[in-house]
């Protein structure tokens, strides 16, 4: 077994991200202790049943005791409260990190409770699915995905490098970013798109009342993609929007302006405007694929046996596994 960056990792919250991290740590072959806890007894019971951690504790205080790395994997709005609860129980010299989708508000909520001699290094893996809970994780979630770290002033470089090694070890590519910049970038690439998907599915649902089940029966691929995104956890996304207000509102303002311009082009029959706009957006998609960032794109050059019917495993996404239990 290779030497892990941390000997004892504790997870607070045992949903999609924490459970994927647990599977990924095991897959990395690290000899390290994993403890974890979750707010609900049902989640803790499932985590015990599937052997997610070495030990699942009933309280957060117990879970973090002796841990070198504590990862907060709860909704963004719950981070501050959890930090306050665990603060007196943290080991001196420990690192606390998080995986929240928003960074500025989490830093503001967590740092007032940070004891002296404990480091808080915020992080955000840009990887996920629409599923949640302890059964939804899989070991390869972070493979070749970015993990953005937004270290705060005064954090020892060696501790940032150690967390970097941790994320790299479980498959991610790490980049550093200022928290405000992170929140603006994510408003464009993740938060506004989710809101638009939620809205589109809501509009279709309103329409369904008029056209009976046609929207469902004839839903095309584009709309199905929206429904996948719009099936994401309501608590998580409520907290994202409430905690990244300024950046999301800024991007939605720009979105509305562009939408109005396209609406006018349709009304006035301005085909050049539509054609030029769609050409520009197609180039963006091609740029993403050329940069190797779209892991969902079909790989026509792939060779080897068809493993699509192989036995389900914890390193495959749940969508491809049996949902039973
Ligand atoms: N799902 C994604 O696609 C994704 C991707 C990257 C980052 N994130 C971020 O990761 C974090 C966790 O998301 P997830 O998808 O793993 O969520 P999840 O819903 O699968 O799991 C959340 C866990 O937090 C616990 N929890 C909820 N409220 C709590 C509270 N008030 N106190 C203590 N525990 C609480 C739940 O019991 C559950 O164990 C969120 O901050 C989210 O923004 C999510
Ligand atoms: O693939 C998905 O289902 C996701 O929505 C993942 C996604 C994203 O927007 O890319 C969602 C929220 C995160 O904070 C990071 C990743």
UniProtKB/TrEMBL annotation:
Keywords of the record: Amino-acid biosynthesis, Aromatic amino acid biosynthesis, NAD, Oxidoreductase, Tyrosine biosynthesis
GO biological process entries: tyrosine biosynthetic process
Residue ranges, annotated region (Disordered): 289-325
Catalyzed reaction equations: prephenate + NAD(+) = 3-(4-hydroxyphenyl)pyruvate + CO2 + NADH
Classification via InterPro entries: 6-PGluconate_DH-like_C_sf (IPR008927), NAD(P)-bd_dom_sf (IPR036291), PDH_C (IPR046825), PDH_N (IPR046826), Preph/Arog_dehydrog (IPR050812), Prephen_DH (IPR003099)
Coiled coil: none
Pathway annotation: Amino-acid biosynthesis; L-tyrosine biosynthesis; (4-hydroxyphenyl)pyruvate from prephenate (NAD(+) route): step 1/1
Gene3D superfamilies recorded: 6-phosphogluconate dehydrogenase C-terminal like domain (1.10.3660.10), NAD(P)-binding Rossmann-like Domain (3.40.50.720)
Regions of compositional bias (Low complexity) in chain numbering: 305-325
Keyword Oxidoreductase: yes
Domain (Prephenate/arogenate dehydrogenase): residue spans on this chain: 7-296
GO molecular function, one term: prephenate dehydrogenase (NAD+) activity
EC nos: 1.3.1.12
Domain of life: Bacteria
Signal peptide range in chain numbering: none
Enzyme class: oxidoreductase
Family: Belongs to the prephenate/arogenate dehydrogenase family.
NCBIfam families according to UniProt: PRK07502.1
Entry protein name: prephenate dehydrogenase
Organism: Oceanomicrobium pacificus
Lineage of source species: Bacteria, Pseudomonadati, Pseudomonadota, Alphaproteobacteria, Rhodobacterales
